[in-house]
Design brief:
By secondary structure, the chain is mostly helical. 80% of the residues lie in helices and 0% in strands. It has three helices and no strands. The longest helix has 42 residues. The radius of gyration is 22 Å and the shape is rod-shaped. This is COX assembly mitochondrial protein. It is found in: Mitochondrion inner membrane. It holds the Pfam family Cmc1.
């Protein structure tokens, strides 16, 4: 059974711009070999990247939450106008 290939998501594209330097640093650390990774030498780079990606996700979620609130307010207003015109 062949696993599905990884498909880049919009998150990857957005986060890449903000966290690219950290991604490159982690990839360079991993390129040093298995022993380097297994001894925990890449942990700091991984933690920094995780924090950066988490912050990007938080920003995206906040933006989406605000957009949904605005959309819901518009929908409520439209329904209110419809109910008043009955």
């Amino acid at each position: 059974m062949v696993p599905f290939p990884h498909q880049p998501t919009s998150l990857t594209k957005l986060a890449r711009a903000a966290c690219e330097a950290l991604m490159v640093a982690l990839e360079e650390c991993h390129a040093k070999g298995f022993m380097w990774k297994s001894m925990g030498m890449c942990n700091e780079a991984k933690e920094e990247l995780t924090a950066c990606l988490r912050m990007e996700r938080y920003k995206r979620q906040s933006k989406n939450r605000n957009n949904v609130a605005d959309s819901n307010a518009k929908i409520r207003q439209i329904w209110k106008e419809i109910d008043e015109n009955k």
